[in-house]
Specification:
This is Methylenetetrahydrofolate reductase. By secondary structure, this protein is an alpha/beta fold. It contains eleven helices and eight strands. Strands 1-2-3-4-5-6-7-8 form an eight-stranded parallel beta barrel, surrounded by seven helices. The structure holds flavin-adenine dinucleotide. The site of flavin-adenine dinucleotide has 24 residues, from strand 3, strand 4, helix 5, strand 5 and helix 6.
Length: 292
Amino acid sequence: ASVGRLLAEAGRPSFSFEFFPPRSEDEEPILWRAVESLAPLEPDFVSVTYGANGSRRDRTIAATRRIAEAAGGPLTVGHLTCVAQSRHELAEALAAYREAGVTNILAIRGDMPGGGEWEAHPDGLRNATELVRFVKEEGDFCVGVAAFPHPHETSDDASLDAEILAAKVEAGAEFAITQLFFEAEPYAALVERMAGLGCRVPIVAGIMPLTVISQIERFALLSGRDLPADLVGRLRAAGSKEEVRRIGLESAVTLCRDLLALGAPGLQFFTQNRSKATREVLATLRGDVAVG
Ligand code: FAD
């Protein structure tokens, strides 16, 4: 089964969940609790992020394998980056994915551990476009890529980002998943920019409900933009943790509704290995639209 085909043929928006590999053995149960409590929602697919160093990478593949092999488990996407790996190591990671039955890959460049300027491995690849081409050459994989409603920090140039996304599609990518964002407008603008380039790749919207006040700065850093001022104002004025959570979830529901109204082909929830916020947002959405 392929995510590309699913998005092309489902005739309704897909919804999916992203998990990250446990950082240590202690974190394993947290991941499996989240996976198990979200399973009854029957996601169209789930994905597991790729760790920045060797041991995290092994954990990524182990966790992806375990999800993919679960009886009746969801379609599973393995993330792959080209940070600090030779072509040979990338080929090995792909072989391990294939052996685990994972044939859908999210090909992203990755960032330098510690946040330094990007540097390709001497025997590796320079960017995600090269990685997409590499994965396609290694076998019959369906490949997805990252998209940025707000310009990626290194370019800060929306047209360049759109051209890069089009180049990744040209290289063989069949779908894209966005970085998180907070209002539907930048997503709509991205879809329009892509259409202007003649590129109609399905762009799944990445959703991360905010539940605690300390996430304001972190989410801004991740998305490359400050959160909308009126939302921050409401969150800061909230009188309790419960109130913050309610405002955060309400704003995620509004965003999802706006995106579905725009015709977004899918919603990918960045679960952070938790399940409650995702369950609540989805329950509300399923109350009013035919998602899933
Ligand atoms: P690219 O598409 O290669 O673009 C990165 C930058 O390279 C561009 O902004 C541009 O400056 C430059 N560039 C690339 N191609 C060209 C070109 N042809 N000409 C000029 N400049 C060019 N990171 C992880 O480590 N693990 C994960 O599992 C992971 N999952 C992610 C999932 C999603 C949905 C998203 C949105 C991001 C994820 N990331 C992950 C983060 C990602 O690795 C970073 O955002 C990274 O900085 C960019 O990756 P990319 O694939 O967009 O890179």
